[in-house]
Amino acid sequence: MEMTRLVLIRHGQVVNHHEYRYNGHFDVDITDVGVEQMDRLAAFLSGVKIDAVYSSDLKRAAKGADIIARGLGLTPKRVHALRELHLGRWEGLTREEAIVRYPEESGFSFRDLATSRVKEGESLGDLKARVLPAIENIINAHTGKAVCVVAHGGVNRVVLTDAMGLPIENFFRIEQDYGCLNLIDYFSDGVKVVKLLNGGPNQEMGETKLY
User: In terms of C-beta density within 10 A (0-12 exposed, 13-18 middle, 19 or more buried), how is residue 100 classed?
Assistant: First the structure.
């Protein structure tokens, strides 16, 4: 039975992380700390046989993919469908700014995203509907090998809830720190096994092994 390994990474720390802004498709860069996080992941993965590197086309993920791919001697591929959850007219704003601008949405909670959305934005169901086919295409293109995807916290949570067979309502029960590493094995019979969640060299959790 063939097995394909997905090395799923969240981008590094973003420049406005301390402001608690809703970035979504808002195209922000990563900080020097974020670059260091990607450098550590690149070093960690340098001895691993990885067939390809993919990322969202947003700068914070694409920059990390460039760093990781360079260490593997690969050219990363950008995938628009791997962008973060679109947060509609709240993008680029803090919650406080959004409520001042759109007081009619003051009662909105992101905990309700499984069944609702910000105006002009996506629900978790919308995110799942665009992310999972893209991941499936990537897995099918590299059957029996290992492939790396650098994406976003929301995207990763969708992939992980699917791999664990969890309803999308469990989205917020999964942590995805900046620069974290997840390992998921996809078997040819349809079984998916999460080998590592929110780990890697940027997490203080002891030794992490890829195989």
Answer: exposed
